[in-house]
Amino acid sequence: MSYLVPHSPKNSIFFNKTGTLKNLKFLVKDMCEIKNFKTSCGNPDFYKKCKTANDHAPFLKDLLNEGAILKGVTICDEFFYSLIGENGHYGTPTNLNAPSCVPGGSSSGSAAALTTNLYDFSIGSDTGGSVRVPASFCGLFGIRPTHNRINTEGVYPMAPSFDTVGWFSKDVHIFKKIGSVLLNLNEKTEFSFTEFVIAQDILELANIDVVKLFNNYINNKFPEIKKIRLSKHDKEKISDNFRILQGGEIKENIIPWILENKPKISPEINARIEMAKKITNDQINEALNFRTKLIDEIDKSLPKGIIAIFPTTPFSSPKCGQSDEQLGSYRKKLMEFTSIAGMTSRPQISMPKFKDNTGPIGISLLGWQYSDEILLENITNL
After folding, report:
1. Please, what is the end-to-end C-alpha distance for the chain in angstroms?
2. Any idea which residues carry the catalytic annotation?
3. Which residue spans within 210-356 are E strands per DSSP?
4. d(Cα 247, Cα 102) in Å, to the nearest integer?
5. Are 144 and 123 in contact (CB under 8 A)?
6. Virtual CA dihedral for 205, 279, 369, 169, nearest 10 degrees?
7. 147 lies in a domain?
8. Distance between CA 135 and CA 314 in Å, rounded?
9. What is the DSSP letter of 52?
10. What is the pLDDT of residues 293-332, one digit of tens each?
11. Count of domains in the chain?
């Protein structure tokens, strides 16, 4: 039942025993600088070549300065390039809230570790859904903040125009506390929350059992809630454009190292790397134009002050050990749910609200840019 990478620090790391996060134990994803340690980004050959960090990543310093205690480094999907949570080198962290099922990725260990009672919170990163998906599958609170709200210096880049540092907790009060520490930039919304709406076009893509669970919960809570459609575009088109932009940035940030160092890469991840190699500049430019139009569209359908609600994932956690083909179909469907927040740089929180026969499924709140604190304030209203 391992959640930690082999190179995880053996001793606790802390700065002081006072502060907002006094004595709270946490874990961090295998993707950031920890003073005197190396990272692997989920790949042992990367670890061998990686240089020892001279200092902690700034976001990590913020947590340690507030009294939090770092207890270890967690397993993640290789080069963060999956939403499933199975690592061919380090294993699949155990999701105790959905036995025999994947934890979700790429922040797999950070989420799965919180299905135990050993830690108070954990840190992940979210580019295409890597906090939100495991939060849903593991029954946790998890957030993808507004892009650039949290300093990503000292965090290994995947696709910088989408990369964010996020966090998990199963305790709502601790979850909010982390926000008060990490959301420390001046940028935040000047608008007030006015209403919740249902993102009907996302909801319609969920499995029928998830739709029933969601509707039963929301209709009891908000019988008069308004339903909207976030975008006229097919959600597969949105996720395809996200995939092109993400892959284009991976081609710049990760693939050059792979070509030079020729690491051993698991088949599922290698297939995605090969796909990213083939992305053309013309495809990227078309996707950038699409993104600009999508942002304008969603600014109108979901203006400032309004928060959209929908299931975080279209299904609960899939079974472990499935084929690459089966996993590919899961990833594709998941991206239809997660790509809008990334494409529009909006914050999204997943909250644990219900379960089916397999495991948890989260409900998401999608806000407007820099509405992170407002989303955090409103999770207790659901």
Report:
1. 32
2. 29, 106, 130
3. 226-228, 306-311, 348-355
4. 24
5. no
6. 70
7. yes
8. 13
9. P
10. 999 999 999 999 999 999 999 999 999 999 888 888 999 9
11. 1
| 278 contacts: CB under 8 Å, gap ≥ 6 | none
In angstroms, rounded to a whole number, what is the distance separating the alpha carbons of residues 278 and 73? 33
| C-alpha–C-alpha distance, residues 28 and 34, integer Å | 10
Give domain status of residue 218, yes or no.
no
Average pLDDT score over residue span 108-115 = 98
Residue 380: CB atoms within 10 A of its CB come to 10
* Contact in structure between 359 and 207 (CB atoms under 8 Å): no
User: Please, what is the Cα angle at 25 between 21 and 28, to 5 degrees?
Assistant: 100
CB 25 within 8 A of CB 119: yes
Longest dimension (CA), the chain: 58
User: Could you tell me which residues are beta bridge partners of residue 69?
Assistant: 25
Read off the CATH number of the domain in which 139 is found: 3.90.1300.10
pLDDT of 185 above 70:
no
- List C-alpha distances in Å: 360 to 136, 183, 318, 323: 6, 27, 11, 23
Domain membership of residue 356 (yes or no) is: no
